[in-house]
Design a protein that fits this description.
mainly alpha; Serine Threonine Protein Phosphatase 5, Tetratricopeptide repeat; 2 domains; elongated
């Protein structure tokens, strides 16, 4: 009887041990590894992205990085999360995420795309020439960086096109501010704005008006030689445009302007202009 009891205990131990092994096997089957969880999370993120659920996609992509931050999937998931934020118009979150990407994964192979996405985030913040254009300057900086460092990529090709659009907006801002100064009869700041268009945004659609405004301001100040110089420039390049016709009116008797009447004020303005040259 005693021997039977010993044998039963022994068999029970063997059974429990084998059950433990089976439980361990089941655990291995039922509980996926971190690597598997990471791949699953990434695939779910892509699925959410394809279905248009960008919020859920961004959460899943960031989950990938948390699971295995040192894996090759981590930097890609950060970019995909940033893109998901971009699609939701959460530009600030996308920018913050991209900056973290540059700091954490400086040698990642997708740097060109990351800089391009960052440029697009800054670009999309702009609502018009009346708004703060500081983000547009940052966008242009990123696009120039792409052209200089990744010249043979598709991103560089598109960057050149985007820079032209940005320059047009920046020129529009200068013209807008210049008009404001004209209304306030602040001739020096107005001249600076319109000259900036000629010097830095000469390929934009705003050059024609900028030249006309220079003709106008110099004529108002009695500096007809300078006024005629810019009128000739306008006539040579834009003789069939709207602003050339407006410029032509300036040198006719019908043209009426608000000329500074105070001689001291006028001489003061002229002396400031001379300091510019």
């Amino acid at each position: 009887m005693h021997k039977i009891r010993i044998i039963l205990i022994f068999l029970a131990i063997i059974f429990l041990y084998s059950c433990g092994k089976e439980v361990e096997k089941i655990k291995l089957i039922k509980e996926p590894s971190q690597n598997e969880e990471m791949i699953s999370a990434y695939k779910k993120g892509v699925s959410f992205l394809d279905s248009g659920d960008y919020f859920a996609a961004s959460k899943k992509f960031l989950e990938v990085e948390v699971l295995l931050p040192q894996s090759q999937w981590a930097p890609k998931s950060v970019l995909m999360a940033s893109y998901s934020y971009y699609l939701q118009n959460y530009y600030s979150l996308a920018i913050e995420n991209l900056k973290r990407y540059f700091k954490t994964y400086p040698k990642d192979k997708n740097m060109a795309y990351a800089h391009y996405l960052l440029a697009m985030c800054y670009y999309e913040i702009i609502e018009g020439e009346k708004k703060d254009l500081a983000p547009l300057i940052l966008s242009k900086k990123e696009l120039i960086f792409i052209i200089e460092n990744y010249p043979d990529t598709d991103y560089a090709y598109d960057a050149r096109f985007k820079i032209d659009l940005i320059n047009d907006i920046l020129a529009a801002k200068e013209v807008y501010i210049g008009r404001h100064y004209i209304k306030k009869k602040k001739w020096i700041p107005a001249l600076n704005r319109f000259k900036n268009v000629l010097n830095n945004y000469e390929t934009t659609n705003h050059v024609e008006e900028a030249i006309h405004r220079l003709v106008e301001i110099y004529y108002i100040l009695g500096m007809e030689e300078e006024s005629l110089k810019y009128a000739s420039l306008l006539g040579y390049n834009y003789n069939s445009g709207k602003w050339y016709k407006e410029t032509y009116k300036i040198f006719n008797k019908e043209y009426k302007v608000s000329i500074p009447q105070n001689k001291n004020e006028k001489s003061k303005i002229l002396s400031k202009i001379k300091d510019l040259f």
